[in-house]
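Sample entry copied in:
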Amino acid sequence: MCLVVLIALAVPTQAPADDFCVETDLYVGEQSEPALRTRTLFSVGVVYDFLLGGSEEITIFDPKRGRFVLLDRARKIQTAMSNEDILQFTAAIQAASQEKGGDAFYQRQWSLAFDEASGWMTLSGQRLVYRARGAPPELDSAARQFREFADWYARLNAMRSGNIPPFARLELNKALLNRGLIPTEIERTVTSDSLPKRKHVVRSQHLVHWRLSNTDHKRIQEAAQLRATFPEVPFVEYRQPLAGERQ
C-alpha cells in the first residue's frame, strides 16, 4: 500500500468528531494517470474502503470486532477474515522465511532517517525503500486510526498473490505515528534480485476531508445492504489479483 496525502483544509460541520475521509490515487512508475483509486471512510470506529473502478471491491475493517469483510460487487460475493487469522498468516510467512535463511522483505532491522528541512522520512532495507512525509491531522484520533487501518490492511494485502510482506510498511506506519502524522506522500521502490537490477516504483496521493459527504454516507448504507445480500465464501475462494495494488 503506498500512500500520498494532501491535507484538505476543510472545517468539519455536522459530522461526528472521529469521522473523516481519505481519497487515494496510486501511480505506477512514471504514469501520469492513477492505476488505482480508493475512497476510505472512517466512520464511528469502522473503516470503509471503496476501490473505485475495476472490481469495485469494498473492504470493511471493524477493529472492535477484530475482523475484515470484503465485498466484491462484480462477482456478488463476500468473505470475512478475523484479525487472528491474518496474524497467523503473517507469523507463518515470517517463520517460513527464517527457515530458508531469511529474505530482504522479512528483515527485522530497517534503517530509518528523517530530514527536518524537507520533512521526508526514509525507511531503507536491502531491496526495499520507502520515502514518506506527512502532516498533523485536524482530529486528535485520526493519526492513530489511520495507522491502525494501514497496519492491518498491509497484513491483509500480503495474503493476496504477488504482494510483498507487510513488515517494512508496519515500521513506516509506526514511525509516522510517533511523529503524530498522517502520511502526505509515500513512495515505495523495490529492487529486483536478478541481473540486470530493475526498480519497481509505486507512489500514491491522498486527499483528506475532515467530514463525510452525503454521498459517503450513502456508500456506507450501500455496503451494509450488500453485506446482507451477498453470499459468503472462504477467503481462499474469494481472493484474486485486483486491478492494481495497494502499498
The chain has one domain: 5-238. The chain has five helices and twelve strands.
